Amino acid sequence: MTPPAPSSIPVDRIAQILARWAGRFIVFEGPDGSGKSTQFRRMCEALDASGVAYDSVREPGGTTTGEAIRAVLLDRANTGMSLRCEMLLYMASRAELVEHRIVPALNKGRLVLADRFVSSTLAYQGSAGGLPGADISAVARVATRGIMPDLIVLFDIDSDAAAKRLNPLLDRMEAKGAAFHRRVRDGYLQQAAQDPRRFAVLDASKDQDHVWSQLLAALDQYARERDED
């Protein structure tokens, strides 16, 4: 489903929208340079102000073991790492995150907000890297214990525009080249087309306030649709 065009949402409505996602699992996804992390921080600030109980996590990382894995994955000294090793390291970090952060938070009725999840692996190591999606999904079922996000917010942007936003000191994943990142974007859009009820696709090429308005509108729409199911 495509969220409605952004509109001005009064401040007193933001807390109401966010409260409807209590106990749910929301994932932010997007290519490097999409502005996803900026909106993630803004969402956390809004949740703090709203009083909604939540936990925010990032991938790879979020646990002691996961952060050690993150350092290995993003280190440009490890350019020779095989694609399967790369995928399995992401899944290992994810397994720790699910076990120690995500499941406990959901069991307490807290909203979980994640910066990346399985969709990233399907886009980066699958669509862009060449690993079969079926192999990735099989490993993911073990790593995640079958947990699926209630909503995946995809911050979509053309790869050329995204590249202009990146820090010139690129990490190992960011430095994989323009063709790779075009395949990443295509992979994300294919996932969204295959599962439109779980994906909200936002135009991340706009300014930050416009994207934030799109995000709030999408959260409002998807919450209402779930209430009607």
Full CATH superfamily name: P-loop containing nucleotide triphosphate hydrolases
Which CATH first-tier class would you pick? Alpha Beta
Spatial gap, N to C terminus: 15 Å
Strand coverage percent:
5-15%
Total discrete domains: 1
Helix and strand content put the structural class at alpha/beta
Q: What is the succession of H and E elements? A: HEHEHHEHHEHHEH
> Mean of the pLDDT scores?
91
Q: What's the total count of β strands?
A: 5
Radius of gyration: 17 Å
CATH architecture designation: 3-Layer(aba) Sandwich
Major sheet attributes? 5 strands, parallel
Tell me roughly what share of residues is in helical segments: 55-70%
Give the overall shape, derived from the CA principal axes.
Answer: globular
**What is the fold-level CATH name, i.e. the topology?**
Rossmann fold
Protein described:
The protein has 229 residues and is of the alpha/beta class. It has one domain (11-211): P-loop containing nucleotide triphosphate hydrolases (Rossmann fold, 3-Layer(aba) Sandwich). It has helices at 11-19, 36-50, 64-74, 83-107, 118-128, 133-144, 159-165, 178-194, 208-228, and strands spanning 25-29, 54-58, 111-115, 151-156, 199-203. The longest helix has 25 residues, at 83-107. The mean pLDDT is 91.
Please tag this protein with its features.
229 residues, alpha/beta, Rossmann fold, five-stranded parallel sheet, 9 helices, 5 strands, globular
Outline the secondary-structure elements.
Elements: H1 11-19, E1 25-29, H2 36-50, E2 54-58, H3 64-74, H4 83-107, E3 111-115, H5 118-128, H6 133-144, E4 151-156, H7 159-165, H8 178-194, E5 199-203, H9 208-228
Helix pairs in contact: 1-2, 3-4, 4-6, 5-6, 5-8
